[in-house]
Amino acid sequence: MKLFIDTAIYDEIQEINQWGVLDGVTTNPSLVKKSKENFEDLIKKIAQEVQGPVSAEVPSGSCEDMVKEGRRLSQLSDHVVIKIPMTEEGLKATAILTRENIPVNMTLIFSPSQALLAARAGATYVSPFIGRLDDISTNGMDLIASISKIFKLHGIGAEIIAASIRHPMHVVEAALNGADIATVPYKVFKQMLNHPLTDQGLESFNKDWNMYLKGE
Ligand code: G3P
């Protein structure tokens, strides 16, 4: 399973990219708001840093407006992906942009039927939101499993991005349930790295090594 970072904070992207683990980036209007940067400059800068798909979201609106905005954003870099919300107008816009070879990430997916529609409209990526389902006492991971089963059974090529990830086990379970990609917040990348037994092990190895060097 590939790993994207779910943030619009450039420093966070740069830091995690140095780990060598990033395959792409996803942003959304709320994340861009937090960055306080100019949207287009930010997307260009991110796309220079990460040589993989960078999702830039268009505001929900008419098909015509979303297509216009999607075409404009796709000019920012050859690996920008247009993120389009799951609405009727969004499906129409996805079909048009896909026919123009502009890749689309269909977002705000909360059911297998929405994922199927997104894939049939031509979306390259579908983004089911796990955490927001968990928040309302519904198992978000079941959604990943169902979409993955449907796509495999019917040879559907759209890639599943497990989004709205809240903790490391979401990442692990998304991988086990067939997600192609998990888009992971900065904080969760740090949590994935940490383990108290690694810290304890390092401490005792360092202690023993220093004693060895001193001939103790
Ligand atoms: O980028 C979309 C998604 O990952 C948002 O996550 O935490 O706002 O539900 P969250």
Poorly predicted runs: none
Enumerate how many helices there are, as a single number: 11
Query: How far is the N terminus from the C terminus?
Result: 46 Å
- Share in β-strands: 15-25%
Mean pLDDT: 98
Task: Kindly name the structural category.
Answer: alpha/beta
From the alpha carbons, calculate the radius of gyration and give it in angstroms.
20 Å
The 3D shape can be described as globular
Q: What compounds are bound to the protein?
A: SN-glycerol-3-phosphate
Number of strands: 8
Outline the fold blueprint:
Elements (H helix, E strand, L loop, with lengths): L1 E5 L3 H8 L6 E3 L2 H7 L3 H11 L4 E4 L5 H12 L5 E6 L2 H12 L4 E6 L2 H10 L3 E4 L1 H6 L4 H14 L5 E4 L5 H9 L4 E4 L1 H8 L2 H18 L3
Parallel strand pairs: 1-2, 1-8, 2-3, 3-4, 4-5, 5-6, 6-7, 7-8
